[in-house]
Amino acid sequence: MTTIILPRFLPKLDLGDPTDPTSIYSDYDNIEEQGSTTLSDQEYIDRSLEENQFWLRIMMEHAFFLRAGLPPDATRLIKQAEQFETIFEKQLDLAYKTPADPVQISKLNEDTLVLTHKIALFKQNVMEESFCKLRGFNFPLLIDHVRREAVYFLKTLKQIQSRREHPVTDDVIDENIFFLQIMADHSKFIAHLLDPQEETLINISRDFGKQFELLVYQARNLDFGSPSTEVMRDQLTIYKGAALELRAFKEQATKLIENCQVRSILDPKLASHVTREAAKFLSIIDKLESRL
Ligand SMILES: [Fe+2]
Ligand SMILES: [Fe+2]
């Protein structure tokens, strides 16, 4: 049974050697040949700081969530998660202190790449050890989800380091496929972490999950053929409308959880975390719209 379930729900990524951060994104080494544009010094600095400041906090929080969901006897993994919380807190602090100088920003990015690669491997390890072994309270989907976010951050930062920007059509397709799936996952987590008595909120969350799964299919369909600017604009408008609704729902849910007005085992930190990720998706849609 396990051998059937594992490949379906827990696809293993080849994350390579932790000391070789180029190993999982070799396609980003050939961006120059793909008709991309070059980032100016200012764009390079701004994008580096923006991504570091957003995702390093996210990585720090992932370590916290994984630790909180591990069973008490998983002492080695708990200790490693604690170490990652400390490491990413320090790196986040550095991301706010690094001067806007290309050389120093490059060093920040390189250090972040190595650390993020390590936490991606850790997440993969937690996934393998949790499933049917340690158990605990980390859903397999949640562990896989936070691992995918680490890999996305690695790819994004590697691209920034190359100082190249993908053609807008590629970004419209890839960014939306990634973030729409992330939004679908969040909706499913919320539905499962609410108390079974909170039927109204559970149903709303499930509906969001189904809506975003359908949008993932739509986004994947764009990958077949060359979508016109008009088609991409229309799609972005649809995604934006859905993401705005989901963000509003998450904001409302976060307040209800913080004020103990809803029964759940959702940590307010997780509610706030997924709300910030919805806001990040909206900011990416805005940037894509401005490039079309
Ligand atoms: Fe996350
Ligand atoms: Fe997420």
Structure description:
Pfam families: DUF2935. This is DUF2935 domain-containing protein. The chain folds into two domains: 40-165, Up-down Bundle (Ferritin); 166-292, Protein of unknown function DUF2935 (Ferritin, Up-down Bundle), CATH 1.20.1260. With 292 residues, it is mainly alpha-helical. It is globular, with a radius of gyration of 19 Å. It is built from nine helices and two strands, in the order αβααααβαααα. The longest helix has 33 residues, at 102-134. It has helices at residues 2-9, 41-69, 75-97, 102-134, 140-161, 168-193, 199-222, 229-258, 268-291; strands at 37-38, 164-165. One fe (ii) ion (FE2) is lined by residues 145, 149, 182, 186, 274, 277.
Explain briefly what this protein structure is.
This protein has helices spanning 2-9, 41-69, 75-97, 102-134, 140-161, 168-193, 199-222, 229-258, 268-291; strands spanning 37-38, 164-165. By secondary structure, the protein is mostly helical. The chain has a two-stranded antiparallel sheet.
Salient structural properties:
Ferritin, mainly alpha, 9 helices, 75% helix, binds fe (ii) ion, 292 residues, disordered N terminus, 2 domains, globular
Record the SSE blueprint.
Elements: H1 2-9, E1 37-38, H2 41-69, H3 75-97, H4 102-134, H5 140-161, E2 164-165, H6 168-193, H7 199-222, H8 229-258, H9 268-291
Antiparallel strand pairs: 1-2
Helix pairs in contact: 2-3, 2-4, 2-5, 2-9, 3-4, 4-5, 5-6, 6-7, 6-8, 6-9, 7-8, 8-9
The structure holds fe (ii) ion (2 copies).
